[in-house]
Amino acid sequence: MEKELGLDFIDDYNRNYLHGDLGQKRFAAKWGVSKNLIFANNLRGNRRSWFQMLNLPKKDSQLRSTVPGRDLPACECCGEEIPLDKAHWKEHEKGGPYKSYNLINLCPNCHRKLDRGDSEITHKCRKILLFREINNFNTKDYTEEKAETLLSICENIILERR
Question: From CA 6, how far away is CA 47, in angstroms rounded?
Fold first, then answer.
């Protein structure tokens, strides 16, 4: 495959996957194989993936935060830069929609605290959601309908999770 593409796999891996902007799926597609063949930890029959056989590093949050322009987003509650969860303010099981006013980006710890009813995290998330939605409201284009929508969103944020 290296001859066909005219590339060295390890160089391409380092340049385009590890330090570039190709993810696992796109990188594997470039090489014409499944992403599991390159990146999996446990293949059937005690087989090893390419990154295991070649002893190549995988991307991780520590590496991504050191690459310029590749910083991880921060938790909206505590500011920690790790992979985030999209937490529902009104739980999805209770009919909470996938809308910006109902979603907040939280680290797993803050998400767990929110779901368990931690009063400090709940209060902080409520303030963040309200501030974000009010900032999204453009006062130059005021209409009665927009004001009603904003009022409804704010009421849902304030009254939910009491």
Answer: 27
